[in-house]
Automatic annotation (TrEMBL):
Keyword Signal set for record: yes
Name of the protein described by the UniProt record: C4-dicarboxylate ABC transporter
Classification via PANTHER family: BLL6794 PROTEIN, PTHR33376
Record's keyword annotation contains Signal: yes
Superkingdom of origin organism: Bacteria
Species assigned in the record: Paramylibacter ulvae
Signal peptide range in chain numbering: 1-28
């Protein structure tokens, strides 16, 4: 468990720490929460967020809540099963992506469409607000703790940079989700889908020419050594895509906790946590970009006028998503309009 600094402990959960109920509480765990996620323990999200967050909750509850972290699917199953695992009580908290089960968590998945992200912090705030307004029924039996995104995706390629649609013709790219894959296909790329864990092999043996991912993924898979070029949209343009994430807690487990311990969880979750995770991902993004630069790879800018044409190519994908939302009983146009309004605000 990461050692907490005094500043971290005092600032993260001050409201909960101030509650008188914790002054006399013994330093023995009353509640154990098993947190399950898919990343290895060396991943920054594990070591720099989950371990710190778990320590803050222990501190705020005076040791009454023990969050035990199980990385790399150590409790069994596969990443697409995480949402069901937390609902069924196989784990108590899970961190997962709605796109792992396409079409199931539609409101949460909306901002995984192309050009529906800015930076991670701002987009995470927008996503959490969108879920508060439209996504309350997405997760029955589950208490959502946070929703967030990563920074906008970039195109990382082996042999040549991507500066225009013509550079995408026939390029074999690993797509991060179906909607982004549809856009890249419409622009002329040959898209393949397989888990991010298989990407290293695909780049090494020439099955793919590149991938569409944020910089924050680069260090974990040493993509800076497998690719030579990274292409990002011009400044002020939205990212090519941004997958959404959900941090979920078993509702029954939450409800069986005492009022004061539920208060600790409440203070450690919600919109502020979504913003915090987004900000953390922006820091991960900056570090990943520094690794690309350190490797000496070429970073190029896709011109704004080119991105505008790409956004037109994404319009039919957005229209199809609105229809999918409508078919599920939502007001698709209202959800997409509000998502764009939130992203453009500020």
């Amino acid at each position: 468990m990461t050692k907490l600094t005094r500043r971290t402990a005092m600032t993260a959960l001050g409201a909960a720490l101030a509650a008188p109920a914790f002054v006399s509480r013994a330093n023995a765990a009353e509640v154990t929460l098993r947190l399950h996620h898919f990343l290895p323990p060396v991943a920054p999200m594990h070591s720099k967020f989950f371990e710190v967050w778990a320590g803050e909750i222990a501190e705020a509850s005076n040791g009454a809540i023990d969050v035990q972290i199980f990385p790399a699917m150590q409790l069994g199953g596969k990443p697409p099963q995480l949402a069901d695992q937390v609902r069924q009580g196989i784990c108590d908290i899970a961190w997962t992506l709605p796109v792992y089960t396409p079409g199931r968590f539609l409101v949460a998945e909306t901002m995984s469409n192309p050009f529906m992200t800015t930076n991670a912090e701002k987009s995470s705030v927008a996503l959490h607000q969108l879920m508060d307004e439209f996504g309350q029924n997405d997760y029955p039996g589950v208490k959502p703790l946070a929703f967030h995104t990563h920074d906008g995706g970039k195109l990382h390629t082996r042999d040549a940079p991507v500066l225009s649609q013509s550079d995408l013709q026939g390029l074999k790219l690993r797509a991060p989700n179906q909607a982004t894959g549809d856009m890249l296909t419409a622009l002329g790329a040959e898209v393949v889908f397989f888990p991010v864990t298989d990407m290293v092999v695909g780049l090494s043996n020439g099955v793919i020419d590149g991938c569409c991912l944020p910089y924050e993924v680069v260090p974990a898979f040493k993509l800076q050594e497998l690719t030579s070029f990274s292409a990002a949209p011009a400044p002020a343009a939205r990212g090519l895509y941004g997958n959404t994430f959900s941090l979920l807690m078993n509702e029954a487990k939450y409800n069986e906790m005492s009022d004061d311990l539920r208060g600790v969880i409440d203070a450690a979750s919600g919109a502020a946590l979504s913003q915090r995770i987004g900000k953390q991902f922006d820091a991960f993004e900056a570090f990943g970009k520094s690794m690309v630069e350190k490797q000496g790879n070429e970073i190029v800018e896709i011109p704004a006028e080119e991105i505008a044409r790409w956004r037109e190519a994404a319009d039919p994908i957005h229209a199809a998503w609105i229809e999918k939302l409508n078919d599920a009983g939502h007001d698709g146009a209202a959800i997409m309009a509000r998502a764009n309004e939130l992203l453009d605000a500020g």
